[in-house]
Amino acid sequence: MNRRDFIQAASVSALASTPLARAAAPAVKPIRLGIIGAGSRGQEDLRHFLRVPGVSLSAICDIYPPRAQQVNRIAGRTIPCTASYAEMLARTDIDAVLIASPVSCHAEHVIAAARSGRAIYGEKALGFTVEDNHKIVDEITRSKVLFQIGHEYRYAAWVQEAMRRVLAGEIGRPTHVYAYWHRNGNWRRSVPTPDPGKKLEHLINWRLYRETSGGLGTELGSHHIDMANWVFGEQPASVLGTQSICTYNDGRTVGDNVQLVFNYSEGRRLVFSSITDNAKTGCELWIYGTQGSVQITIEDATFFYEKSKASNHPSSDHADSKTVVERGVVTGASYSTAGEMPYRGPGAKVQTDNAEDPTLCSVRSFVEAVRGEHPIDADVHVGFRAAIACSIAHDAVFAESRMPIPTLAT
Amino acid sequence: MQSRDEHPTSKHRKQPLRALAACLLPCCLALLALHLFAQQPDAPLQLFTTTHPAMGTTFTLYLYSTDPTEAAAISDEVFEQIDQSDQQLSNYRSSSELSRINRLAATQTLTTDPDTFDFLEQSLHWSRVSDGAFDITVGKLMKSWGFYLHQGRIPASSELATLRAATGWQKVQLDPQARTVHFTAPGVELDPGGIGKGFAVDAAVRILRADHVSAALLSAGSSTLYALGSPPHRDGWRISIPGPLPRPDELSSITLKDTSLSSADCTQKNFRIAGHLYCHIMDPRTLKPVEGRIQVTIVDPSATASDALSNVLFVNETARGLEILKAHAPEARALIVSGDPAHAHCTAFRWTDTIDQSHCTVN
Fold it and tell me: Which of A206, A368, B42, B253 is the most buried (most CB within 10 A)?
């Protein structure tokens, strides 16, 4: 008896004997997945999907053959693999489709999956071009299939709690969101050699080329745009952008750093920065309001508060008013370090019971929606409002001019 | 408001990848086949070294490649995998899968992913065959002795009695069919410390093999490492095993190819009270730090196995530890140093390389 056989025999017999095990026997509706695009992000999504009871993987679609072996490892068994999404969608053992292909293929894959009638978990950004985004919304609306966009931060417990407090007015009126995703790495994936014509280079490193990638503003910034949309209750109206290649002069045609300013109504703004040669700041987002700030990271959220402005309002019953004329004003030093550089203090961390990974929370919610337990939260419209801003920002960083962002026609 | 037609780039931007994808499938297959046979004979192999902090230590990758760009890309891939393992197994990250299991598995039967389930299976396997000398459930025990946050202390005997109820691999139940884990007692906490780095190294080595790397050495803070292939014109990677402190000069050296090595000693994680040294390696059966062992070095094709077995050999009496190797690790070799540094003795098991006997008496 080998190790796996022993564990299987021993633990099954032990578990089957307990009342708890019998009570815990899966009563959930099985959800069988197909995956289109099984690269690094697709594999990470899949890993989390397989932590949800009742979820299994039926088929893989990827045009790069090594992905099948990588996915088989994650799935723990050999999964049928095809390079044709039409062939995969023709299978009868798929309930839902995970789409994690390059962004420039999203529209083609999402529309095909929607026409097959399957529920869809689509990675961000929703679509690559303005036209793509509109087409996806049109098809999802027409086909009435469930669609959830992979803006997983919407499902993290600490993000939900922080946003609840922000929208309840805890930091006053939010006016600015400053968001950073700073890394230290060339964003490049390994390419087998030889690679004549650099075909594999363009297939594997699609993120580095303007024709197939929205660059850092889309691939990393779409999460932050979605969060700002949530804070301000709308999508941005226009964007200013710029980028350059500062460190990685390796033939890429998107910037290795990008800076974007998204303009919302009433002068409110999202400022997004991404650099790839220094990771000090990491991934974080600050919401600045008139009475405080909140810092949101991939692991937690922390509130900070402005000093009270109440003392700036003239008051006739101030305590000093009664004595200052009789007793006079005492002279002294005026310098106060706190006034010059106010120390923000350690902040008040958002306390939640749930520390689960945002992607696990997101995919579990999707599975529950497919089972009919509740509606989708991050739906196709949420995806549209972030992706349409990405599409325009992608052009804005090359044009370096202010560009308007279209809304969804109603 | 700008209309859709005001974006000329939007109409044709997506065509390149789609067209590329259409013609790429046969190209991919052909190129991959070609790659298996075609090397670049003219470009000399160079050794590239990259370091990366993860799992509470520093990983180092020594990689032979003909191309700096390729070396950088492979290094990134390897360390991305290491980070993924860290995110999966860390008991210091509240969002890790292992932390989720620790939080929930006592109150529910928890579904996990196949890779994490494989980790749990391997952990329980070594726990079972070692009669608990290695035990994945020492999380509470490590915290109680203060090793979790480097604040060493001796727990009261009443505290140890409470720990007894929350320690023991038998309290972890796995169901391979449902891929679930359940703790049969409250308070059980898994600690990946004795096996997680090996599991991460094995996962990273799979990346190196998939990338057809001919020679690389991956070291997880030097306590677990894997030697893939061999450097040019060498039989393998030379590994030096230092002698017990205070004499760190070489005790033995070994040449490794396509195998792993793990070591265990108390020099990096310990505390001293009233002159007595308390080691971070616990005997889960006594709930106390191991006494009388100085260091262990073990070679095995699986880094997961060598990592776990280094604990098994460190905790068990030497004879019992070697029985376990004979029964369950047919390719393992080991060098065990016991006693006290002034009067150390070394036990060599299938260890054919020279041992400097000025460090120890060899039996």
Answer: A206
Q: State the pLDDT at residue A334.
A: 63
Read off the amino acid at residue A403: M
Contacts for A396 with CB less than 8 Å, ≥ 6 apart: A239, A240, A241, A260, A402, A403
**Residue tagged 């894997």 (tokens):** B226
- Render the burial of A24-53: b for 16+ CB within 10 Å, e for the rest: beeeeeebbbbbbbbbebbbbbbbbbbbbb
**How far does Cα A247 stand from its chain's mean position?**
26
- Please tell me if residue A70 touches chain B, with a CB cutoff of 8 Å: yes
Please report the ipTM that was assigned to this predicted complex. Answer: 0.77
- Measured CA to CA, the distance from residue A385 to residue A231 in angstroms comes to 13
Q: Which two tokens stand for residue B162?
A: 């409470």
Go through the domains of chain B in sequence order and give each one's CATH number: 43-90+193-229 (3.10.520.10), 100-183 (1.10.3980.10), 235-363 (3.10.520.10)
pLDDT per position in chain B (363 positions), as tens?
333 333 333 333 444 555 555 545 554 445 444 444 444 456 789 999 999 999 988 999 999 999 888 898 899 899 999 999 999 999 888 899 999 999 999 999 999 999 999 999 999 999 999 999 999 999 888 888 777 666 777 788 888 888 889 999 999 999 999 999 999 999 999 999 899 999 999 999 999 999 999 999 999 988 899 999 999 999 999 999 988 777 778 999 999 999 999 998 876 666 677 667 777 788 888 888 877 788 899 999 999 999 999 999 999 999 999 999 999 999 999 999 998 877 889 999 999 999 998 888 887
Q: Kindly state whether A399 is in contact with chain B, defined as any CB-CB distance less than 8 angstroms.
A: no
On the question of pLDDT at A404 being above 70, the answer is yes
Q: What is the DSSP string of A181-210?
A: E--BS-------S--GGGHHHHHHTGGGST
Whether the predicted pLDDT of A84 surpasses 90 = yes
Strands A55-61, A81-82: pairing kind = parallel
Q: How distant is the Cα of B128 from the closest Cα of chain A, in angstroms?
A: 9
Q: How many angstroms separate the CA of residue B189 from the nearest CA in chain A? A: 16
b/e map B30-48, b = 16+ CB within 10 Å: ebeeeeeeeeeeeeebeeb
Q: Could you count the other beta carbons within 10 Å of the beta carbon of residue B179?
A: 21
Which residues of chain A have a CB within 8 Å of the CB of B93? 299
Q: What is the mean pLDDT of residues A107-128?
A: 98
Three-class DSSP category at B249: coil
Contacts of A396 in chain B (CB under 8 A): none
CA distances from B304 to B2, B57, B228, B299 (A): 58, 17, 15, 11
| Helix B114-129, helix B196-210: angle, nearest 10 | 130
- Cα angle B310-B314-B315, degrees, rounded to a multiple of 5: 120
Residue pair A256/A206 in contact (Cβ under 8 Å)? The answer is no
Indicate yes or no: CB of A131 within 8 angstroms of CB of B17.
no
Residue that is written with structure tokens 């579904």 in the block:
B111
Q: What is the pTM of this model?
A: 0.83
Question: Looking at residue A396, what is its pLDDT?
Answer: 97
| φ, ψ at B190 (rounded to 5°) | -80, 140
Which of the two residues, B75 and A15, has the higher pLDDT score? B75
Residues 6+ apart with CB under 8 A from B157: none
Contacts of residue A256 in chain B, CB cutoff 8 Å?
none
User: Rounded to a whole number, what is the largest CA-CA distance in chain B?
Assistant: 85
Work out the minimum CA distance from A51 to partner chain B, whole angstroms. 4
State residue B248's pLDDT score: 72
Closest CB to A11: pick one of B80, B173, B211. B173
Q: Could you identify the residue written with the tokens 């990491």?
A: A282
Return d(Cα B177, Cα B265) in angstroms, integer: 38
B175–chain A nearest CA distance, Å = 5
